[in-house]
């Protein structure tokens, strides 16, 4: 139902406007031009350069119909500069033809806007915009905006609606005037007026590159809205009560004392941040970031201990069953000696057994480990105090928020090994607190990386033999075939068959996504136990798998993998004390982007640096991907090139929420309208 604020227009127009996301009158003024046409000046036909949009005024010399090669209306025009030009219209109305003929016989001039190009009959313009001048019509005093539009919605209609709204809208300033001038920001009103109707002296390049202060102001406001809305989500969640997990720390101390290693300084720091959050009566919403292999799992286990000691349940969710099982095994080794009751929820358990386990998970279990689907859909926890989500980058904001619907309001710890550059994190994770493990456990030898073209596969095979002869194990990752899961599987079988022949005498295992959970688990268990020398795998091993004796990772057709994937895969080795190597086998010739990717993975080992390079290569939209679909997309600001604005916006969001919440609300309304509802889970 159109409300008071709805745009006034016929229903057909309104539905097209809706396609552009324009529903409220306020939306119109934030619909900004893509570019501009300069109709403020007229130049002589003889002076007009071909290939650039120009405006001319000319007499109609002749109007004719040409039939070959296609029926078309041809209008010959000329002006005082001595230049002559043909306007060609391949589609036209009879009324248009009559009006042009009338202009010709009555001596009216045309005002024409378009690009001149050389044609068969001399200079021509195809389908220029024009109008017949019957009297003295002044030229516009500002550049003509060209808006993003959709089929059936003309620039003329959009311009009129927007101009009208600009005249009537409340462009009240919400930011402090001194602050604005200190940052060289015009007021919102000034910025909008300028961008919708720039005076001709505004440098075109600054408008086009969106570096003009008016553009910067708009981008800032957009980022501010994003920050505010994510902060709202954060604060709204905090208002829900959560169980305060206040403990003496008996369990965590016992666990720590039982470990064969000492925690790193970074692990201790983040563990303390988490422990302090859990001791609050509002839910923790924390993202634990740290590069592959930095030791996030033990930090999660310590958090779980705190919840359990406080008399609550902890749930640990992983994106795949393989990963969940690996964690279950690890947690069992750590926590069962402490007398903690654990339950493993796997899809591959038989129906009856699964029911029983779900029953146990709902009631007596203290730590529940499984995949998201299993835990989220089927268990009603008695006293859920903490939810830990591993590899959270595989899930969107939505799924993160879904958890809240489980009745209770557990504390949440999200873990991610996909490091994301700071400005992206500030933007996409502004509804979370962030802890960072920025150091690897000591004694790790960095994984060396080598590139081999397919032509040198024999050398790689020999290398595999040598590694196995030395008592180590090998991962061999199959080519990724994006288009088809079936081909992907076939590639895995082919690779397994080929390697079994090439590496006769070695024990070759195969794990892929189509295996049933228990089959996968059996293969992985055999690999962990050292009963398999070479594990051929599809990317199911991408995340989390932890086998310290594996020291060689071969990635076949490495050119098909993304940077984050390559980094994750490489992180599967180098987990023990052994010298480790990652071999990237590629098929030449390489495309330019594949070459750039492989160069990055070869040169850098630090996940954050790789992420930064990746961001640079792909741009932020691609980088974060559609997974983060709960976040309102940015229309104008760019998280990479406008990084300085992201920082400013974050600071301003905090300030507004503190000192002028009503202005924060107004700002959000202006930018997001009803769309903010998207984020309120
Ligand atoms: P990730 O952060 O990638 O999930 P893990 O938690 O799987 O990393 O840890 C990788 C390996 O390092 C595991 O074998 C883990 O037991 C070990 N580890 C964790 N912390 C330490 C430490 N402080 N010192 C030595 N080894 C550690
Ligand atoms: Mg992990």
Structure description:
- There is one protein chain.
- By secondary structure, this protein is an alpha/beta fold.
- The chain folds into 4 domains: 84 residues, no CATH class; 95 residues, Nucleic acid-binding proteins (OB fold (Dihydrolipoamide Acetyltransferase, E2P), Beta Barrel), CATH 2.40.50.140; 188 residues, Rossmann fold (3-Layer(aba) Sandwich); 158 residues, Rossmann fold (3-Layer(aba) Sandwich), CATH 3.40.50.300.
- It is built from 25 helices and 22 strands.
- Helix 6 packs across helix 8 and helix 24 packs across helix 25.
- The longest helix has 27 residues.
- The C terminus is likely disordered.
- Adenosine-5'-diphosphate binds next to helix 11.
- The site of adenosine-5'-diphosphate has 17 residues, from helix 11.
């Amino acid at each position: 139902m159109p409300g008071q604020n709805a745009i006034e227009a016929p229903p057909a127009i309104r539905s097209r406007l809706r396609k552009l996301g324009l529903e409220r009158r306020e939306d119109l003024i934030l619909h900004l031009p893509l570019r501009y046409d300069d109709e403020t000046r007229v130049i002589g036909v003889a002076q007009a350069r071909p290939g650039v949009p120009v405006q001319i005024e000319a007499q109609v010399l002749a109007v004719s119909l040409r039939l070959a090669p296609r029926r078309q209306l041809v209008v010959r025009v000329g002006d005082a500069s001595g230049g002559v030009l043909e306007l060609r219209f391949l589609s036209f109305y009879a009324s248009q033809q009559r009006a042009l003929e009338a202009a010709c016989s009555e001596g009216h001039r045309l005002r024409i806007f378009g690009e001149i190009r050389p044609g068969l009959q001399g200079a021509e313009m195809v389908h220029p915009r024009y109008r017949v001048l019957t009297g003295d019509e002044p030229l516009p005093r500002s550049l003509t905006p060209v808006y993003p539009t959709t089929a059936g919605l003309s620039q003329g209609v959009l311009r009129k609606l927007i101009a009208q709204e600009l005249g009537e809208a409340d462009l009240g300033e919400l930011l402090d005037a001194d602050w604005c001038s200190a940052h060289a920001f015009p007021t919102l009103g000034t910025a909008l007026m300028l961008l919708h109707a720039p005076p001709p002296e505004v440098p075109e390049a600054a408008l086009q590159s969106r570096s003009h202060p008016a553009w910067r102001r708009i981008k800032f406001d957009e980022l501010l809205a994003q920050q505010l809305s994510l902060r709202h989500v954060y604060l709204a969640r905090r208002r829900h009560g959560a169980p305060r997990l206040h403990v003496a720390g008996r369990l965590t101390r016992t666990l720590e004392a039982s470990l064969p290693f000492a925690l790193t300084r970074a692990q201790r720091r983040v563990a303390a941040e988490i422990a302090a959050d859990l001791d609050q009566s509002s839910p923790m919403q924390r993202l634990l970031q740290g590069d592959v292999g930095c030791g996030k799992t033990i930090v999660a286990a310590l958090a779980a201990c705190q919840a359990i000691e406080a008399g609550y349940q902890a749930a640990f969710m992983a994106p795949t069953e393989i990963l969940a099982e690996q964690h279950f095994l690890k947690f069992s080794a750590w926590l069962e000696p402490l007398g903690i009751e654990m339950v493993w929820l796997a899809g591959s358990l038989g129906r009856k057994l699964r029911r029983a386990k779900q029953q146990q998970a709902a009631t007596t279990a203290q730590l529940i480990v499984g995949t998201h689907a299993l835990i989220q859909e089927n268990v009603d926890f008695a006293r859920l105090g903490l939810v830990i989500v591993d590899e959270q980058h595989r899930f969107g904001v939505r799924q993160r928020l879904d958890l809240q619907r489980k009745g209770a309001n557990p504390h949440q710890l999200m873990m991610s090994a996909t490091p994301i550059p700071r400005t992206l994190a500030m933007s996409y994770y502004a509804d979370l607190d962030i802890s960072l493990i920025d150091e690897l456990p000591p004694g790790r030898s960095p994984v060396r990386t080598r590139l081999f073209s397919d032509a040198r596969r024999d050398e790689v095979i020999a290398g595999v033999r040598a590694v196995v002869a030395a008592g180590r194990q090998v991962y061999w990752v199959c080519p990724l075939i994006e288009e088809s899961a079936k081909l992907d599987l076939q590639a895995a079988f082919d690779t397994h068959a080929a390697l079994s022949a090439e590496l006769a005498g070695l024990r070759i295992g195969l794990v892929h996504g189509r295996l049933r959970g228990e089959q996968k688990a059996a293969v992985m268990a055999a690999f962990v136990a050292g009963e398999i020398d070479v594990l051929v795998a599809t990317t199911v091993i991408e995340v989390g798998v932890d086998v310290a004796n594996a020291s060689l990772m071969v990635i076949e057709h490495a050119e098909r993998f993304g940077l984050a994937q390559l980094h994750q895969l490489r992180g599967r080795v180098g987990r023990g004390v052994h010298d480790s190597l990652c071999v990237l086998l590629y098929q030449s010739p390489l495309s330019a982007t594949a070459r750039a990717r492989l160069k990055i993975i070869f040169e850098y080992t630090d996940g954050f640096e790789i992420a930064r390079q990746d961001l640079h290569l792909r741009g932020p939209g691609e980088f974060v991907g559609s997974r983060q679909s709960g976040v309102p997309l940015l229309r104008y600001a760019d998280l990479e090139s406008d990084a300085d604005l992201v920082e400013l916006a974050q600071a301003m969001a905090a300030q507004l929420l503190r000192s002028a919440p009503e202005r924060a609300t107004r700002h959000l309304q202006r930018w997001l309208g009803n769309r903010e509802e998207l984020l309120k889970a």
